Amino acid sequence: MNVSLIRGADLVASPWKNGGGITREVAAHAHAWRASIADIDRPGLFSRFDGIDRVLVLLDGAGLMLDGPAVMQPFDVASFAGETAIDARLVDGPVRVFNLMTHRGAARVSVDAWCAPAACVVDADTVLLHCARGALDVSVLRARFALAAGDTLRIDAAHRVDVRTEGDGALLCARLAMEERS
What we know:
By secondary structure, the protein is an all-beta fold.
């Protein structure tokens, strides 16, 4: 098992494929998945990604609407196929989202939000623990990591690992599982 701390302050900003926003890659596994933080500052269509399944979690902002009247609030999750034309509308100003993209048939993801203190057993090929708000101390395998908002702890080969959190923050737990190819 490998544990690495990814500081949010070290992430590099780059423009979206369609030029409509900025993204910062958090972590990736070639030809399987990618996790990023995206800033959306204007309404518009999302980039098209054929063969990709997407999961968005609203982190900050007044709200986001994706092709419907329902308004995403912080920590709401939206899932959709990358080939679907998604028109994003902002409720009242810019938003920030945690964006997970998996190659269909190569990986799958599930996401939960935790408020500290919390204790959980995680079981996945890779787990991303993203500090969405506040500050947290995260304990994994007798090691303790201090996370500030925007930091992510990546745990590879996270099979049956105890995770404990303390502090005043909120954490996203993304479990990524590789799929068997026949």
